[in-house]
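Here is one chain, start to finish.
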Amino acid sequence: MDIESLRYFVKLYEKRNFTKAAKELFITQQALSRMIIKLEDEIGGLLFIRKSRGASPTKLAKYMYPEAQKIIKDFDDFVFDIHNKVEKEKYILKVGFAPGTLRVLGVRELIEFGRAYLDIEVDIGEFSDIDCEENVLKGNIDLALTVKPNEENRLKYIHLIKENLILIVNKNNPLANKNSVKFEDLRGEKLILLDDTFRMQQVTIEHFNKAGFTPDVYFKSSHDLRVVYDLVELNKGVFIFVEKLTNVEKYNNICCIPLDVPTAFWDAGFIVKRDEKMKPAAKKFINYFLNKRNLEQI
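Its structure:
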């Protein structure tokens, strides 16, 4: 005997009809009948007299009904109290994600974290890399997953993800015939870049400087990559981006070429305020994902 079989018994007792009771329980009449027969076998007595027009409760059923109601109510109250206690004790962890980082981290893994740590509720928001840093420093969020900051004096950075960069070009561009490219190969090309709120933008500019020239910028994008892909499709420029975040399958005139520069990559990880003791929930969150990638925990 379990709580579910008691629920079925109570519903049939109240409806006195297998069809009506089964409908309200969202099960088949046959399934309800099997459950009642199993319950009768377990207690060793008949609960209902089956008739063509319904089911009449026996004396045993009339005795069981109020007791079953009490058991169900006590059980439901117990479950409610437990859930209420868990909700009250939950710590709301505010986490910022720079564009693309949540996709690489994996929404499924984020859900799995929530299941593993019922005492932590994760409140997420998407910000640019720069805004992630500012929100952490101002205390608006507890931590952020973002591209490695240039200045780490006020921020503690914990590396998590490293991804290769690629060049996205129109198939009619002569660069499309290369197996890989370097920054020097982009001299004279019209460049489509991310705007200055993205830390990756600074990485690419530094490498252009090392290559000895200033890029000829045709367009700077904020968040809408569809505009960027459309411009490349129209052969208006070339675009450097993260390989794992690139999605150009539906564009017929675009191809991707590896960027063969070992020092140019997308380095993303967690940032927290350096001068504050890390909150236990934040540490659990960070260590969970470090462990997932076999990285040393903090």
